[in-house]
Write a structure and sequence with these properties.
By secondary structure, the protein is mainly alpha-helical. It has 2 domains: 78 residues; 92 residues, no CATH class. It is built from 9 helices and no strands.
Length: 221
């Protein structure tokens, strides 16, 4: 079960996921183990097996109710997700807690505060800036993302022309999304530009539902 708390257009990575005590904690482990018993729900079974099946569904509901839902309630909207407090929290936890199962750090400790190598933050927050009317800041962020990845993507697309539409190539997908949003900068009319940003957002989200395995394959330009 993949659990993360990201805007749909986000490229999933590290610090945007659920904290380790939720994604790998006691509720999750209890819910995850023993799913095989559910497959017997379509055949005749004895009372003990029925009880086991019911118990497993109880474990799933407990994980959702006591593990996931409280976390969702903390960021119940994009506005809250991108609030300064949330961003400060993400920055403060970049080094992360230890994985409760392995004892190893949850996230990469080698960055030492440096920007992520993909400039995925520039993409993530650049789009949010556009959506919230801070277009100047948003375009600067998106330009940084596209510029930083342009050399890699030029070589990548020569070898794999359809990489930008392949969910197995996260960087190429992000690069294409950033390009689409950045293209709206050329529209001089303010209202038409805002409309184009919203249309681009909807187009990107349609594709990202496929990327996140939430919908069937969708075509895009």
């Amino acid at each position: 079960m993949l659990c993360y708390l990201c805007p749909i257009y986000a490229i999933q990575y590290g610090i945007l996921g659920l904290s380790g005590d939720i994604s790998q904690g006691e509720y999750f482990q209890k819910m995850r183990n023993g799913w095989g018993v559910i497959q017997y729900g379509t055949v005749a079974v004895d009372a003990a097996t029925v009880e086991s099946i019911n118990g497993k569904f109880d474990d799933i509901l407990i994980f959702l109710a006591d593990g996931m839902l409280p976390e969702w309630q903390k960021i119940d909207s994009l506005e809250t997700y991108f609030a300064k407090e949330r961003r400060d929290y993400l920055k403060a936890t970049e080094k992360g807690p230890n994985d409760p199962r392995t004892g190893r750090p949850m996230w990469n400790l080698d960055t030492e505060g440096k920007p992520d190598p993909w400039r995925a933050d520039s993409y993530l927050f650049g789009v949010w800036d556009l959506l919230t009317g801070k277009e100047a800041e948003g375009y600067v962020r998106l330009e940084e993302c596209v510029r930083h990845n342009s050399a890699y993507m030029e070589a990548r697309l020569k070898e794999f022309p359809n990489a930008c539409n392949d969910p197995r190539d996260a960087m190429a997908v992000m690069y294409r999304n950033a390009q689409l949003f950045l293209g709206t900068k050329e529209i001089s009319d303010t209202q038409k530009r805002k409309n184009a940003i919203r249309e681009t957002y909807e187009e990107v989200c349609r594709f990202m539902r496929y990327y996140h395995s939430l919908a069937k394959k969708t075509e895009r330009s």
